[in-house]
Write a structure and sequence with these properties.
The chain is α+β, with helices and mostly antiparallel strands. Helices cover 33% and strands 28% of the residues.
Length: 166
């Protein structure tokens, strides 16, 4: 099952959004301004929000916040967020006031590159600066990790002894 999620938010105020209908680019700020002109803000205990309905549920968008939803819902919310631009509330061009900031797969782990030096402890990823310090650090801080290695080598040598005796 694909589990693509998307971050949905208001269009950034400084972003230019091109309008296919009018051929004019508009600033995100102008689209958001239109929310007030068209009286689309609502209020609840947490403050003002722009609500978009989906499947009987109201998704509340607030300034400075993003909502993470499955991609299919994100596309729907964006489509439903079209705001009529200008003073003509019936015939003005429609532009969405929401955008999909990023889509990502929840099931695939994000790979983050960790920069390490030769003296970085492979267990806790803390650089010990020198090799003697790294050795000391590993014996003191990770003795539990290093003990089984010793035991294992003892077992191996025992097995080898037995094989040799045969
Ligand atoms: Zn360590």
């Amino acid at each position: 099952m694909p589990s693509y999620q998307a971050r949905v938010r208001f269009v950034p105020t400084d972003k230019e959004i091109y309008n296919d209908e009018t051929g004019v680019a508009m600033k995100g700020a102008d689209i958001l301004k239109q929310l007030r002109i068209n009286n689309l803000w609502r209020n609840d205990r947490e403050g003002k929000y722009f609500g978009v309905m989906f499947d009987g549920q109201t998704f509340k968008f607030r300034e400075g916040q993003e909502i993470v939803v499955p991609v299919e819902i994100a596309r729907h919310l964006r489509r439903m967020s079209a705001v009529c631009i200008g003073s003509d509330k019936l015939n003005g061009p429609l532009l969405p006031c929401l955008e999909i900031a990023e889509t990502f797969d929840l099931m695939s782990p994000k790979i983050v590159e960790v920069k390490t030096t030769p003296t970085t402890c492979p267990i806790c990823q803390i650089d010990q600066q020198t090799f003697p310090a790294l050795m000391r650090h590993q014996m003191e801080e990770h003795s539990d990790v290093f003990k089984p290695v010793k035991k294992e080598s003892k077992i191996r040598s025992t097995i080898t002894d037995e094989v040799l005796e045969d």
